[in-house]
Design brief:
Distance between the termini: 82 Å
Oligomer: single chain
Strand order of the largest sheet: 2-1-5-4-3
Low-confidence stretches: 77-81
Strand content: 5-15%
Number of helices: 8
Radius of gyration: 27 Å
Mean pLDDT: 83
Shape: elongated
Number of strands: 5
Largest sheet: 5 strands, antiparallel
Helix content: 55-70%
């Protein structure tokens, strides 16, 4: 597998001489991570909670990973834009959170940003000498973290985020790790995307239900105003609107107050 961005000017590390037992162990770890991923029930947790679980499974699935994070970007993020708009992120360890803050909020450079913009995995075996990220690499190396692997989360031709793995040793992520990590990133992108769609659909449904309830209350309030004034529906609506603007209260709240008042008066008359 050579379709990834390696560190410029640094000779790729030789592929480790892995015994059949180690290869089998790595495959088992990958399948365990994928099994854990498939076991996440999207409607049983929030997107943020799901990202936390995905990050944990990533550490298990990617050989050499000491800590990992998952980052999602805003759908309208332009791959050519200088600014990356983070939608959500989760990490497995405090040091990964510190690295994320450096990368996204303070320096605006790093393997995840490069990976999301290129749509290709980004690998670094010696962050302190990686000229792609001169400020980020040195800062992270001083933390004792020297290797990084960023894997894009891709749906169709669109990158929705990335998985970022880190390790203290140099050249921790050879092609073997990139290959297994990419096998994990593919299904992860689909699962996360589906969870986002479900959350978005639920939000729209909730907003629609709220709008329908508000519309019903407003219609009731219009009927009450008309019964008192004898005016038209438009005149009653205009009156409610003026009250809303004068008192700086939402129209639906004005209508609800009027309806509640009418109900209280009706009950009082019945007593």
């Amino acid at each position: 597998m050579d379709d990834y961005d390696a560190q410029p000017g640094r000779k790729p590390p030789p592929e480790p001489e892995l015994s059949p037992a180690q290869l089998q162990a790595d495959e088992l770890d990958l399948h365990a991570g994928l099994s854990g991923l498939s076991g996440i029930v999207a409607d049983a947790c929030s997107v943020d909670e799901m990202l936390g679980q995905v990050a944990q499974f990533a550490v298990q699935a990617i050989p050499g990973a000491d800590g990992a994070g998952v980052t999602l970007v805003e759908p309208h993020t332009d791959s050519g834009s200088a600014e990356l708009r983070i939608q959500a992120r989760s990490v497995t360890a405090e040091f990964v959170g510190i690295i994320d803050t450096l990368q996204y909020e303070k320096l605006g450079e790093g393997p995840c940003i490069t990976c999301i913009r290129s749509g290709r995995p980004a690998v670094s075996g010696s962050l302190g000498s990686d000229r792609r990220w001169p400020h980020f690499g040195g800062s992270v190396a001083r933390m004792g973290v020297h290797s990084a692997l960023a894997l894009p989360l891709t749906i169709g031709h669109r990158v929705i985020g990335a998985i970022n793995a880190y390790a203290p040793g140099r050249d921790a992520f050879a092609e073997h790790a990139v290959q297994l990590g990419s096998q994990f990133a593919g299904p992860t992108a689909v699962s996360v995307y589906n969870a986002q769609l479900l959350a978005s659909t639920r939000l729209r449904t909730k907003q629609l239900q709220q709008a329908l309830r508000s519309r019903a209350v407003i219609d009731q309030a219009i009927g009450i105003v008309r019964s008192r004034s004898g005016g038209t529906a438009q005149e009653a609506f205009d009156r409610l609107t003026r009250i809303s603007q004068r008192e700086h209260v939402k129209l639906a709240d004005v209508a609800e107050q009027l309806v509640d008042e009418a109900v209280r008066r009706a009950r009082a008359r019945q007593q």
